[in-house]
Each structure stands twice: as structure tokens, then as C-alpha cells.
Specification:
It is a single chain. By secondary structure, the protein is α/β, with parallel strands linked by helices. It is built from nine helices and five strands, in the order H-H-E-H-H-H-E-H-H-E-H-E-E-H. The protein has a five-stranded parallel beta sheet with strand order 2-1-3-4-5, with helices on both faces.
């Protein structure tokens, strides 16, 4: 049985500053756990270094992170029934995944939309297209005031998504729209980003343990 507290104990032991974020990290975990348990997905975005963090999060969720993630037996049987040899290769190499999409790529869509409409709405447009009730939007902004993140969060709320914010310490606009906003205790951009990584690694570890730890 997954014990999120042990991951939080490890996190705060290595990064005592993050003790202040403990309850919000646990709340964010609960939102993500519920979404994935119900077959929903995560949409995540940020700017600059936070765009890289968005891709990093997706990488940890969509493939093996720390644990081996074998696919379920019923899928193995189905793959081999469709095509025995290729099915065997797929069965031996596919990994369990938690569905997550970074909104920071998609260069053709991004450039077309930015050329035709308001550039700061690009994340909102993708949330509008991908988002379904019960999904989660995770906005990363060191200031918590990035307008493209705010527009995406508002759009997410309008479509029935839960919203997680990951920001710096200062009070910010993203807090107004987020179901939970994890505000790491730093104010300089690079220091905020240095604390964002262990936070989202902790969340990814907890989620992997929950959904693949017993396999």
C-alpha cells in the first residue's frame, strides 16, 4: 500500500525548506491520484526553465521512473493474439504509463495559433482542446503571474479540470484559480526552479508507487 508520507519525509529530510509545502504537496498528490485512478490525464505547461520542467514531469510519468512498469497481463495476451512475434516484442518492452501531455511542444500548432490569434492564449487553446472534466492542469510559473499560465488555468476551470500551481513564495494570481498552489520558499527565479525539481520528483515517485508499486 502506498504511503505518501514516507516520500514526503524523505523530501523534507533532504530539503528542510520544503517542510512548509508538505500539506500542499500532499493535496496535489491526492488530486493527481484521483485523476489517474479514474482514467483521466494531466496537462502541464510552463515558460523557459519551467517549460523544461513540464517536459521532465511528462517523462517521469509516461515511462519507468524508479520502478519497473510491466504492462497488464490482459494487454500482453491481446498483443500476442494480434501478431505473435511483434506482440511478444511489444509485451516485453512496453512500459506502464500515466497519461500526461506537455503543452510546450507541438511547434506547428503553436506557431499557427500564435500567428492567427493572441500568442498568450496558446496554452489555453490546448487546454480547451485536450481538457475533459476530471483531468488536471498543472501550471508552473516562478512568479505565479505568467499570463499564458493564468489563461490556461481559467480555461481549465471552465472545462471542469482541477488546477495545480507550482510557483515561488510570493502571493500570486495563480493562487486565485488553483485548487492547490505549491509555493516553494524562494523568491529568486533560479532558486525557485532549484526547489521545483525535488517537489515534482516527489509527486512522480508517489504516483509511480501507487499505480505500479504492487506489480
Amino acid at each position: 500500500m502506498t504511503d505518501p508520507e514516507k516520500y514526503l519525509d524523505d523530501l523534507t529530510g533532504r530539503y528542510p525548506l520544503l517542510t512548509a509545502c508538505r500539506e500542499d504537496i500532499l493535496k496535489a498528490y491526492g488530486i493527481l491520484e484521483e485523476a489517474f485512478a479514474n482514467g483521466r490525464k494531466l496537462l502541464v505547461s510552463g515558460n523557459g526553465g519551467s517549460a523544461s520542467d513540464s517536459e521532465h514531469i511528462v517523462g517521469e510519468l509516461m515511462k519507468e521512473f524508479k520502478l519497473k512498469r510491466k504492462i497488464y497481463a490482459h494487454q500482453v495476451a491481446s498483443l500476442k493474439e494480434i501478431e505473435p512475434e511483434m506482440g511478444r516484442v511489444l509485451a516485453e518492452n512496453l512500459q506502464g504509463a500515466l497519461p500526461a501531455i506537455s503543452l510546450t511542444g507541438h511547434s506547428s500548432l503553436t506557431t499557427a495559433f500564435m500567428n492567427d490569434s493572441l500568442p498568450e492564449l496558446i496554452f489555453a487553446q490546448q487546454v480547451n482542446g485536450y481538457g475533459k472534466p476530471g483531468d488536471v492542469y498543472w501550471g508552473i510559473s516562478t512568479s505565479g503571474n505568467s499570463r499564458n499560465i493564468l489563461y490556461a488555468a481559467i480555461t481549465a476551470k471552465s472545462r471542469g479540470l482541477k488546477v495545480i500551481g507550482l510557483t515561488g513564495h510570493h502571493k500570486n494570481r495563480l493562487m486565485d484559480f488553483a485548487d492547490v498552489c505549491i509555493r516553494v520558499p524562494a523568491v529568486e527565479t533560479y532558486q525557485i526552479q532549484e526547489l521545483h525539481l525535488p517537489v515534482y520528483h516527489c509527486l512522480c515517485l508517489m504516483l509511480e508507487d501507487k499505480f505500479f508499486g504492487a506489480l
